[in-house]
Amino acid sequence: MLRAMLFTQWKWTRAYLLPLVIATFAVPVYSVQQFSDASLSRWQVSSLLASMQTWGAGYMAAAMLIGLTVAAGAWSWDTKGRHVYALSLPIPRWHYLLLRFAAGAIILAVPSVFLWIGGLVATSSSAIPIGLRAYPTALALRFLLASFLLYCLTFALSSLPKRLAVGFGVAIGMLVLADATIDYFTKSSLITALFEWAIRWPGFLEVFAGRWMLIDV
Q1: The whole model's pTM is what?
Q2: Domain hosting residue 83, numbered range
Q3: Pairing of strands 215-216, 133-134
Q4: Other Cβ atoms closer than 10 A to 105
């Protein structure tokens, strides 16, 4: 059943996922175009590293989009069909949920593998200055972890019943409104504090912070 579910989820998401997969392969290749001479000065190397760091936003954005796309695709047809198909299967609901989750997690490996291949192609065809190293494997693993984290969060929210999802949205809206009120009177933002806590170790969004670098010191 996992094989069938994997096929159907890939069929539902491939139209949106394939452009992102191609982008994950192309970004590392284009990011090393300036590395054409290994004998560069210290200031030239610093400039190249700054350029590489700007590409980090592309890796992070792609990881977010892929996680959101795969998670949303996992429940798109079930939501449209009011979960009738899922409830008609002769398996427990937790088993069906686990199969849905596993199928999406397997699909997430596809763009990460393409990013890894793109990183290998990019670093093998460029002249890396002395003192710098390439990290295609570490970057691909971080990319996979980041996309998996967004996938887990979106998968959990997408699987909620409609009323509970609406209630969750209302709660978020009330939190934003309360934060705006607190910020107006005290000049301190609760949401900003929570976000800073989340992206700092051991925050659960820490994987998105820091430098996303294919080539670094």
Answers
A1: 0.76
A2: 2-159+211-216
A3: antiparallel
A4: 19
* Surface-to-core class of residue 5, CB atoms within 10 Å of its CB (0-12 exposed, 13-18 middle, 19+ buried): middle
Segment 143-199, tens digit of pLDDT: 999 899 889 888 877 766 666 655 655 665 666 566 566 555 566 665 566 666 666
Phi, psi angle pair for 143, to nearest 5° = -60, -45
Domain contains 94: yes
Phi, psi for 216 (deg, rounded to 5): -150, 180
Dihedral, 210, 52, 67, 157 alpha carbons, nearest 10: 40
Instruction: Report the b/e string of 38-71 with b at 16+ CB within 10 A.
Output: eebeeeebeebbeebeebbebbbebbbbbbbbbb
Integer Cα distance of 217 and 214 in angstroms: 10
- Residue 19 lies inside a defined structural domain of this protein: yes
167 part of a folded domain? no
Give the chain's domain count.
1
Reference 125, options 215, 20, 62, 206; nearest CA is 215
